[in-house]
Amino acid sequence: MEPEVARFLAIAIVMGLGTIFPAVAIGLIGSKGADSIGRNPEAAPKIQTAMILAIAFAEAIAIYALVVSLILKFVE
């Protein structure tokens, strides 16, 4: 396999895995947060704050994957 092809394959794998898993995590966080608010509406502000923080941390993983893929693409 040529180095250029291997590099693009690595970029595709990093971006694929680096976005699938955080997307699944964000979906689960949103689902469980909505369930929790539905069961205990008076705790909605606390649940929503924790949910937004968890979503931000999961999204940060996707951003790290983007940074790694950009480094792979532009650095030789």
Overview of the molecule:
- With 76 residues, the protein is an all-alpha fold.
- The protein has one domain (3-74): F1FO ATP Synthase (Up-down Bundle), CATH 1.20.20.
- It contains two helices and no strands.
- 4% of the residues are buried.
Oligomeric state as shown:
single chain
Derived from helix and strand composition plus strand pairing, the structural class reads: mainly alpha
Mean pLDDT figure: 93
| Biggest pleated sheet | none
Total helices: the number is 2
Low-confidence stretches are: none
Summarize the structure.
The protein is mainly α and 76 residues long.
Protein traits:
about 80 residues; mainly alpha; F1FO ATP Synthase; 2 helices; elongated
Task: Give the arrangement of secondary structure elements.
Elements: H1 3-39, H2 44-74
